[in-house]
From TrEMBL:
InterPro entries: ClpP/crotonase-like_dom_sf, Pept_S49_pIV, Pept_S49_SppA, Peptidase_S49, S49_SppA_67K_type_N, S49_SppA_C. Keywords: Hydrolase, Membrane, Protease, Serine protease. SUPFAM superfamilies: ClpP/crotonase. Belongs to the peptidase S49 family. It comes from the Bacteria. It comes from Runella salmonicolor. This is Signal peptide peptidase SppA. Pfam families: Peptidase_S49 (PF01343). Residues 121-274, 368-520 form the Peptidase S49 domain.
Length: 585
């Protein structure tokens, strides 16, 4: 028996050591591949192939293993896509672009920037092909500017309008006997509604209905221009669910061809004047970004620094999915002290978060703009705390479909007393030196006096937010407050209301910054942030998955409830956060 146990134990140890060795070999191989800076030699008569079905973030994640396939990583950068298209426009060896687009994991404003970059590429008179086995609305929005749009005969196209659905946790909290205590300012500050409602309030439904209508109308107008179809007809097709099969999309001229991939290849070969047995020379994004750059950098002593903040806002250092106020402050200070940097573009893609962290970054923007121009560039979303970051800049640039505004704050506390007593059998008692020494507490009901103090504190932070926003936008406080109350706006509405200055993406913001710094076109260099490190991302995901698996093993059916509690834990302190997690489909 002991001999058997010994063998089992030895096997377990061996498997563990083998896994550990494999992990370190993986890290070593990734580091070795990552250190390779070999340039890509683009052959004549090549086609730039863009797979837009991966997760698209502001900055790519460096994936050295993409070299082995000539493709791209799991997370591709918006900057890389735009840079590749701009370079391919000038590259005599690139004859056209092939878009593989079905389920792009990207926001609407980022999709707008990619679409604009494709339109700019087409000025070179080179071809653009798009193909998908299926296409979502967002995929079609990107594909709609292509010269030829192919849809698989057995596939389909989603064209039924946009929808936004939200989660509500009141039922979960009731089952767990957790009492939410909410303090908010603003009729539209509905980020806390999931904790005490089972559906949207009338105010929340109104703002979200207007938001998705504006975004869809903007998309329809642009598609109408690209395809030569009236906006009214496109909306009727969505209302009537007329696009049921690929042949329907062809009938109504939304696409140009129904065909399989081999038929797309045949058409491309004809475009490239290739023989039937010849191979198409595709070059993927991962390789093409290492090709010779045909857009020359300007002088190194005149730079525009691009600082990117992507994710929820919190205090401390930035990490995957979060903007750390300390990291943004450090970047702003470096740019401020660097004499070669003549202007700064603060690129923001955030639904908000900690009000304190947002204000800390606002202060650093103020210090920087005293010495050089600071321009805000809003991406998919720059709302609440994200708008807080932008409102102190000299100018704000956003897309018409950027989600912004939500000028409001909230605080939320949870009383777990009944949860601990009734679910776990744990009770609490205390002694205090003063009447409110344990305030605020999550294990007892608060008194009306204590509640009033928290509400007053939330109102004070809101007053600071709106005052600074009014100062930044140079408008009367009363007018700003009429636009606030937590109301979410599209970029189009924000411009009409004076909350932003100009429409455009990152490139437009850089142009605005150059003009403010009195720099001529071609007379400066753009300093972009470095790629994210794949190995660090892998370790973060590995440890995160391990924690989730352990949680599932230990808690079983209660694991989902703990996930809810962990989400609540992230909302520490007063929050300047967007209502819900807005996902528009």
């Amino acid at each position: 028996m002991w001999q058997f146990i010994k063998y089992v134990f030895a096997t377990i140890v061996g498997l563990f050591l083998f896994s550990l060795l494999g992990f370190f070999l993986f890290i070593g191989l990734a580091a070795a591949l990552g250190s390779s800076e070999e340039k890509t030699n683009v052959e004549k008569n090549s086609v730039l192939k863009l797979n837009l079905n991966n997760s698209i973030q502001e900055v790519s994640v460096d994936n050295p293993f993409a070299e082995l396939t000539g493709g791209q990583g799991d997370v591709i950068g918006l900057l890389d896509i735009k840079s590749a298209l701009a370079n391919a426009k000038l590259d005599p060896n690139i004859k056209g672009v092939y878009l593989d687009v079905q389920y792009p994991m990207v926001g609407w404003a980022s999709a707008e920037e990619i679409r604009d970059a494709i339109i700019d590429f087409k000025k070179s008179k080179k071809f653009v092909y798009a193909y998908g086995e299926v296409m979502t609305e967002k995929a079609y929005y990107l594909a709609s500017v292509a010269d030829k749009i192919y849809l698989n005969p057995a596939g389909g196209m989603e064209w039924n309008g946009l929808s936004a659905e939200y989660d509500f946790y009141k039922g979960t909290l009731d089952k767990l006997e957790i009492k939410p205590l909410v303090f908010r300012v603003g009729e539209y500050k509905s980020a806390v509604e999931p904790f005490f409602r089972e559906n949207m309030s009338d105010a929340s439904k109104l703002q979200n209905q207007v938001l998705i209508n504006t975004i869809f109308n903007h998309a329809v107008e642009n598609i109408a221009k690209s395809r030569g179809i009236s906006a009214a007809q496109l909306k009727n097709l969505a209302d009537s669910l007329s696009i049921d099969a690929p042949q329907d999309a062809l009938k109504y001229k939304l696409i140009t061809h129904v065909g399989y991939y081999d038929e797309v290849e045949t058409s491309l070969k004809n475009e490239l004047k290739l023989k039937e047995d010849d191979k198409i020379k595709f070059v993927g994004l991962g390789k093409y970004i290492k090709a010779d750059k045909l857009i020359k950098d300007g002088p190194s002593d005149r730079r525009i620094a691009v600082i990117i903040g992507e994710g929820a806002i919190m205090s401390g250092k930035s990490n995957d999915g979060n903007i750390g106020s300390e990291t943004i402050m450090e970047e702003l200070r470096k740019a401020r002290k660097d004499k070669k940097v003549k202007a700064v573009v603060l690129r923001i893609n955030s639904p908000g978060g900690s009000a304190l962290a947002s204000d800390v970054m606002w202060r650093e923007v103020q210090l920087t703009r005293k010495e050089k121009p600071v321009i805000a560039s809003m991406s998919d979303v720059a709302a609440s705390g994200g708008y807080y970051m932008a409102m102190g800049c000299d100018k704000i640039v956003a897309q018409p479909n950027t989600i912004t505004g939500s000028i409001g704050v909230f605080s939320v506390l949870f009383n777990f007393e009944d949860t601990f007593r009734n679910k776990l059998g744990i009770t609490f008692d205390r002694v205090n030196t003063n009447a409110h020494a344990d305030w605020p507490s999550v294990t007892r009901d608060m008194t009306p006096f204590e509640n009033n103090r928290l509400q007053k504190s939330t109102e004070n932070i809101y007053a600071t937010f709106t005052r600074k926003a009014a100062e930044g936008r140079k408008m009367p406080l009363a007018k700003l407050q009429a636009l606030a109350s937590g109301r979410v706006w599209s970029g189009k509405e924000a411009k009409e209301n004076g909350l932003i200055d100009e429409f455009g993406g990152l490139d437009k913001a850089i142009q605005v910054a150059a003009k403010a710094a009195k720099l001529k076109e071609g007379d400066y260099r753009i300093k972009y942030p470095a790629e994210k490190n794949m190995v660090e991302q892998f370790i973060n995901k590995l440890t995160g998955n391990a924690e989730e698996q352990l949680m599932q093993q230990k808690l079983g059916d209660f694991a989902p409830y703990l996930k809810v509690l962990k989400k609540l834990q992230q909302m520490q302190g007063t929050q300047a956060r967007l209502p819900y997690d807005i996902v528009i489909k």
